[in-house]
Write a structure and sequence with these properties.
114 residues; alpha/beta; Transcription Regulator spoIIAA; five-stranded mixed sheet; 27% strand
Length: 114
Amino acid sequence: MAYKNERVNNIEIICPMNEIDAITGNEIKNHISKLTDVIGIIINFNKVNYLNSSGLRELIQSLRILKDKNIPMALCNLSDNITKIFTNTNLHKLFDIFNSENDAIKHLQEKHSV
């Protein structure tokens, strides 16, 4: 599997390994589409060293799937290079991006309690 996942406080945390491309992104999107009993999703980029346009497309589609289910998604631990991709494409305005997993968890818990 190209990612690991765990559940913390009813939040699904997905940790892709090495890269997010069309294949990995599609696997993550398929996993996300089956989730219903969570208060949020975090994609932790801690181990991601490569993201291409196909992977980015899959992340956007995942976000749309979750918006339809009213489940928020957050991204965290983006490297400088991946942060530049999100900034240069203005996708940083579409995604909730945090420096740490703990910050992302706190944000999703606060969103859920509103």
